[in-house]
Amino acid sequence: MTNTMQAAQINHYHQNQLVIQPTPLPRLQANDVLVKIMAASINPLDLKIMAGGLKLILPYQMPLTLGNDFAGEVVAVGPNVTQFKIGDAVYGRPRKSRIGTFAEYLAVNAEDIALKPQNLDYQQAAALPLVGLTSYQALHDLMDLHPGQKVLIQGGAGGIGTLAIQLAKSMGTFVATTASRKNFELVTTLGADRVIDYHTENFAEVLSDYDAVFDTRGGHTLEQAFRVVKPGGHVVSISGLPTAQFAKDYGLPRWKQALFGLASHQLMRLARQSQATYHFLFMWPSGQELQLLTNLVERQTLRPLIDRVFTFDHLNQALDYSRKGHARGKVVINIGER
């Protein structure tokens, strides 16, 4: 193994194209494994980071290697690691301070990964960690959904939606979702009980008395979610505004807590009026929760949906395709088998 690798980086925010260039191999810490990355997936988070949209929460140093989840093979282990060995096929979402999966190798804390599901190849497995953990943490950890409850999942045909629908159905819930007419069959096959054509219907006018709404859109769509939930219900968003409480829990300074408090004032007011809770979800890595998802995949309860696979050399074309917002499921980058 050489001392350098190829990695896709930005040198400043608002850079639309990634530059694939040589960079030093990551240093292995005592609790890390070094993974040869076989595949990674594109997430909206990557585009937000490139655009500088998360600087207040994640002030990265430049140059920055992008990429937030992966599947690959362990090629080295730190001295404190006992649960993984060289040759293991693993997948995961590295912690936010150590992203960089658009590269040939990644050093990742062993607590942030799990063994790859045996019934998935590397490309399929790479499509799962970020959207899977985000969906699980929204539906299970924050909403605490139970059988018989009703949940609305926005954007059912997207990377998050296709996974969240399946997960919500595995929890025994009634699932409504929004989609364009051409994707009705897809989301119904995944388990959606009620599908709303967002081109012709306003979900807030046809749905009511829901236990929870999982928002992936933000803006006016998020505000309307509070018309759908019943008292005691939950609205969880990955695209809305962070709250003061989120900033405090995340360890941000008081001035940022105050700033987010002001920005999210309208959302918190809507939550109080509807007697519901509002959470901004910034998912966290968890090898333990990934293992739960692995079990569901191996029982064929969950399956990742891939829209398109690009080679590492065509990563920028993949980003351009993702920006259009029309992918059905995930966009995957094949890195280890170019």
UniProtKB/TrEMBL annotation:
Keyword flag Oxidoreductase: yes
Pfam families noted in UniProt: ADH_N, ADH_zinc_N_2
PROSITE patterns linked to this entry: QOR_ZETA_CRYSTAL
Keywords per UniProt: Oxidoreductase
SUPFAM superfamilies noted in UniProt: GroES-like, NAD(P)-binding Rossmann-fold domains
InterPro entries according to UniProt: ADH-like_N (IPR013154), ER (IPR020843), GroES-like_sf (IPR011032), NAD(P)-bd_dom_sf (IPR036291), Quin_OxRdtase/zeta-crystal_CS (IPR002364), YIM1/Zinc_Alcohol_DH_Fams (IPR050700)
Domain Enoyl reductase (ER): 14-333
Protein name: NADP-dependent oxidoreductase
Origin species: Levilactobacillus tujiorum
